[in-house]
Write a structure and sequence with these properties.
This protein is mostly helical and 83 residues long. The chain contains 2 helices and no strands. The relative contact order is 0.10.
Length: 83
């Protein structure tokens, strides 16, 4: 989990380096570990702590204000004003 938090948690990538077994599948012991990791991640982030929060920014693009960062819509975002 520490590797997950210090890579993905810091906006990086986590390369799992999984290789298939003779069946062409992810080995069962690796799959078990991945399932346990997924369960911990899902439980840890089950509650969105930013939901319902009020955001503000010193500057914003006129069409992409700070509130859009937590509106739940993946097609909207906050954007700084052009320099």
């Amino acid at each position: 989990m520490d590797i997950f938090y210090t890579s993905v948690g810091r906006n990086g990538n986590l390369i799992l380096n999984l290789s298939p077994d003779k069946r062409g599948l992810v080995p069962d012991n690796q799959l078990d570990a991945l399932n346990r990791t997924a369960q911990i991640i899902n439980e840890t982030f089950a509650t969105n702590l930013a939901a319902g929060g009020k955001l503000s920014a010193n500057n914003s693009n006129a069409t992409n204000g700070a509130a859009l960062a937590v509106d739940g819509n993946l097609d909207t975002w906050w954007e700084a004003a052009p320099a």
